[in-house]
Amino acid sequence: MRIDILTILPNLLESPFQHSILKKAIENKVVEIHLHDIRTFSTSKQKSVDDYQYGGGAGMVMTCQPISDAIEKLQSERKYDEIIYLTPDGERYEQKTANRLSLATNLMMICGHYKGIDQRIRDLYVTKEISIGDYVLSGGELAAAVLADSIIRLIPGAISDETSALTDSFQDNLLSPPVYTRPPEFKGLKVPDVLLSGHAENIEKWRMEMAEKITMERRPDLLD
Ligand code: 6GU
Predict the structure, then answer these.
(1) Which of 7, 126, 132 to mutate to test the pocket of ligand 1 (most atoms within 8 A of CB)?
(2) Beta-carbon count within 10 A of 209 CB
(3) Binning pLDDT at 50, 70 and 90, where does residue 80 land?
(4) Which of 53, 78, 110, 149 sits a CA distance of 20 to 30 A from 217?
């Protein structure tokens, strides 16, 4: 998979891909991440990327020209499965969307700032608009990192134990059961006996029961 991310803050998106699973996925050529600084596409003298909004009102709008040129350059090089705009008014991001996007070959992500991007960029190029939750971030970069992380870890080869992404919370609409490691007792709290029993069937049954209990308590909406 290849992911191209258009942003005015490319530095903000460097660190998320330099650690742990994402770093290894890049090293193992499971995924390529390409960051593009929208400002470098601006044809204006001051390399500006935003302007006042028509109709008045507080906040600047990201202008068409630099984003359009960046998108069209990339589109001339390869075909994109989705051109995603990260925006708080997009569809709410869920695991099933991550699953679907993990099957793509080429993804493009556009990070907005200020009041967002000119509507015509959305009308002309964007194929999917995604929000990562009902709260407002200062820009789309952190959301793009969230998407990229959740997608990349699903690609075969990104995680050494391929089954482990399948046992994540949400993959079966259940939250994950509690986990423990050594020591068997810590500050008076003991690891549940069943986990020390070595009885695989009972352990699986306990994990399923705990997952259902926790999901019922915290996220009953997932069980509908
Ligand atoms: Cl994708 N962008 C911004 N700026 N804020 C958000 C968001 C995205 N998703 C939730 N809040």
Answers:
(1) 132
(2) 12
(3) very high
(4) 149
Q: Which CATH architecture has domain 169-223?
A: Orthogonal Bundle (1.10)
Domain ranges in the chain are 2-152, 169-223
pLDDT, residue 164, reads 72
Which residues sit with their C-beta closer than 6 Å to ligand 1?
86-88, 130-133, 135-137, 139-140, 143
pLDDT band at 162 (very low <50, low <70, confident <90, very high): low
Q: What does the DSSP assignment read for 44-98?
A: STT---EEEPTT--SSEEE-HHHHHHHHHHHHHH---SEEEEEEEEEEEP-HHHH
- The pTM for the full model equals 0.95
pLDDT for the residue numbered 165 = 79
